[in-house]
Each structure stands twice: as structure tokens, then as C-alpha cells.
Amino acid sequence: MTDKPTRRLVLKGAALGALAVPLRVFTAEAAAAPAADGIFGYGVASGDPTGDAVIIWTRATPPPAGGRIATPGSGLGRPVCVHWEVARDSDFRHMVKRGTVYTNASTDHTVKVDVTGLQPYTRYFYRFHAEGETSPVGRTQTAPDEAGHLHALRFGLVSCSNYTGGYFSAYRALGQRDDLDFVLHLGDYLYEYGNGADRSGPPELIGVRDHIPPTEILTLTDYRLRHALHKADPDAALAHRRHPWITIFDDHEVADNAWDSGAGNHTDATEGSFAARRRDAYRAYLEWMPFRLPEQRVVPHQGTRFFRKFTFGPLGDLSVIETRQNRSAQVNLPPFSTSGGGLIPLGVNPAADAQLADPARHLLEPEQLTWLKNNTADARPWHLIGNQVVLGPLRFPGAAVGVPPELTLINSDQWDGYQADQSALLTHLAAQASDTVVLTGDIHSSWAIDLPNSAGVEFVTPSVTSDGFYEIVRGRLPAGTPPEALVTATRVLEGALRAANPNVKFLDGVGHGYTLIDVTPERVQADYHHTPLPTSAMPNPVAVQTTTTAYLRSWQTLAGSRKVTAATGPVGARSDNPA
């Protein structure tokens, strides 16, 4: 034993003033704790793989100076020289790329390298060195994008990972898989809420799995700390270390139900400029995520261009769209919705109905919609669209959502709230020779949907942890209602929604988890992997750290069918593997 204070003790006593807790309990100090664990306490990540390049990422925390640790967002710490290496083997005997970069407090000491000149459909290993320390070894791979060569394509699909909502068992399950080309995260990677009245998630995790900062995040320091909290999570760290990720933000990376100049969860009078808040949120996102900004001049756009395209040889492509930065404000109809949109009835207010149909209102800026149409007009067999909010028309019967039964509602924050853009895109997709599969998150439940007029299909992934239909039902029924009865009530709600929407072929509002997407020339299949059903023995599976996800059910769309059909079982072995 030594009397010399360790970096972690200095952090706990001086930087955060946190309560004494076991070293590896991820509680109130979780976001900043890895800064005391050496140079590379936040691990490594990779992302945005193309056929010849991939982003590699880490944070290089400089050694403490004068007892002060450069925790995320602190602005502390001297510049650090970081050496990076990429090899074909995990022992780094067959080195293919190496280099040196510098990082400092202006980028929160994050490091992001675009490693180019790689071979397509090839697995690589990477690591960083600085100040006499070496990072964990990350595993990544380039995209199966090789002209004239048809390769397998398989990836994990996730969305909506609220830290206080539960443990990231879906990330752990993805990190344990060896058959993925990448993980596609469709938004709400983090949530802006605090630990007070705005907190969501199982009550038994209060004081165990808390947000940091403990209040709603508003500033650049806040957003950096919240990102650090997620990188500190061991399940997220595993999934980032084992696979490249393709990501795009939705609303909670800034504030709930955001639009071009505001958000449902933002008040200028008390929280300052929304434009400044969004600028800081985007900056932290680009610092802390393995995200490659596309070339800003090649494609017309408004603001910062975040939307981008990935190709997979002769098999297909993936267009990742961005639906928040330039969207028109959502339609509201008090008392149903007052800011940021929500469930509003159709046919009761002509002015609201006219707004919903107004061609001057946009979800995507017109330039991005044109780009997306052009992408889906080429000759590739499969066009995948990574999309934040549900594209297919959905109608919510009043009785199912607790309003007068004669009402039919739509969610004005989804594409249904921008009917001109929705109709234009669906009409375009229906006229194309190739097949389109839309991949969606946001709604915290699992869906398989036929799009109108044979425009394609839509697979919606469940949330990793964020409250879904089951949690909504639990909040409406008397306290103490057994979980088994809550599941039954949720199934009734699902049945009402399916009856009102014949285009919905599958809906599960109970499970959290991920979706495995597998693409072959013959079909695209979606395997849903969920957490266990809540029971009296385990009322909140996401609140149990050892919970695992398990295969539930498969749906597919066959080439040329443009319809959802049931698959006979989960996907098998890949047809080929990366070099």
C-alpha cells in the first residue's frame, strides 16, 4: 500500500467530489472515471468503413498536471502526441499502416484518423501509443465493396440507447458476434435528460446507473461528458472495439423532437440559444464518434452535410439520411401536442390537416431528398436506407392511445407529419426497378412494414434500452400490476395498432435489443434479438446487468416481391468472410 494518491483517487476527490464507491461501479463518476485509468481509458472505436478506408478513434488523456486530471469537457491538459498502427493480425507482426497525430483540449483530446489505402473486404487490427502507454487493440474491417465481386453483407441494427434506461445488453451481444461487417446506429446514441423529473428508466437503477452531468445537458462541456459516459460503458466499449460503426444522430443527441430552429425539449428563455446548443452538441458528436464528415462541396446541401452513402459492390448500397438539422417545425394541435409534434388527430382541424400536407414543409431539405432519389435510381439490386423516424404511414386508433375512440391520430414527428415529402419519396421508390429496404429506429419497438404501392419494405429496430410500449402501458396501469398482465395489455395494444394498419406485418412493443440484417441477392432478412419478457421474477430485464438478448423471430423481403414475409428461422453461416 502507498500513501501516494492514485489518478482515480485524485479524480474522485478533486475533480468530481464523487461519493466513495467501488472502483468499477459505473455510477455518478462514470463519464470521467476512465480519465484516471491511463492515457487510453476510453478505449478505441472505428467507423464509416468504405472499400479502402476506415476511421479509427480514441481519447488520449494527458497525464495529470498539478493533481488536475483532463476529464472530458474540462479544457485541461497539454497536447499529446499519439502514434497509431494498423495491422492484419492482432499481434501486429504484419503492419500495413502507421502514423502520428497530435491532439489537445480543443478537440477534448479525442483522436480520429481516416486510414486510407486499405484493401476491400479485409479485417484489420489497430491500436494507439502515447506517453509510454498502449491502447486496447481494436478490430475493424473495410466494406465488402469490390467491383465485380459479390460478397456477403451482414450487420447489426440498433437505436435509442438511454443510459439510465438500463444496461446495454444489446451492445454486449453484438460485441460477442464474429459475423458482422459493421453496426448501424440510427440515432439517439445518448439522451439529453438529467437524473431528476426528466429521468426515464427502471427506478431500481437510480443511484446505480445515473447520467453525468446529473442535470439536462446544455453546453459543450455537458455534451462531451455525456458522450464520455457512453464510451465508459463496458458493453458499449466492447461493441465499439470489435466492430466498425456507421452512425447518425436523431434528436436526443441535441434535444427531444428537434427541428431546424428549436426542439420540444428546449426553451430559449431559460436554456439559451438553441442554435448554440445544437452547435455544441454537433461538435461533441463529431469529436466522440468515429464519424467521417462527407465532402461538403460535392453534393448540394444545407448546413453541415451529415448524410452519406456506402456501397457494397454489385449487391447494393446504404444511404444514411439525416432528418433533424433542416426539418420544418412539427405540426402541433393543442391539447394533443403543443411543441415538437406528437400524436395529433386527423380530420378535426382543417388548418392542421393543411399544414401536414403543405409541400413547403420538409423533413429532409430538398437537396438531400434529391440526393436520396438519385441514389435509389441506379441499377444496384438492393437499396438500403438508414432512416431515423418511421417512413410508412401509421394510424393510431384513439381507443388504443387513451383518447376518444372516434379519433384517428398520426405522429407528426414522423414522416406522417411531412406528407408531401413522404408521398414524393414513396412514389419515387415505387417507380424504381430495384428493391428498397428502409431501416428505422426511434419508436422503441420492433416492426416489419409493407410500404404503400409496392415502394419497398421497412424494418424497425427496437430500442437498446429506452422506454417502449410496455413501459408506457406500465405507467398507465395501477402500480403493482403484475408484469405478466402488463405484457398481456401491451399485446392488446399491439393488436389494435396492427388492426388499424394492415400494412404492418409484425409488431413487438415489449422487447429491447437489436436487429440482425442479412443481405443476399435473393433476399434481405431481419432477425430480431430481444431481451427476455418481463416476469414477476424479473420485472425489468434491462435493469439486470447480466441480461442477454436472444433470437425471437425473422422477417424477410424476397427480391422483386417488395413485401414482408416470414422467414423460416435465423440466418445461418455467411456465404463468405472477409480476408
UniProtKB/TrEMBL annotation:
Residue stretches making up the PhoD-like phosphatase metallophosphatase domain: 155-528
InterPro entries: Metallo-depent_PP-like, PhoD-like_MPP, PhoD-like_sf, PhoD_N, Phospholipid_Metab_Enz, TAT_signal
Keywords: Signal
Gene3D superfamilies: PhoD-like phosphatase, Purple acid phosphatase-like, N-terminal
One Pfam family from the record: PhoD
Cleaved signal peptide residues: 1-30
Protein's UniProt keywords contain Signal: yes
Phospholipase D N-terminal domain: residues covered: 43-142
PANTHER family: ALKALINE PHOSPHATASE FAMILY PROTEIN (AFU_ORTHOLOGUE AFUA_5G03860) (PTHR43606:SF2), PHOSPHATASE, PUTATIVE (AFU_ORTHOLOGUE AFUA_6G08710)-RELATED (PTHR43606)
Protein name: Phosphodiesterase/alkaline phosphatase D-like protein
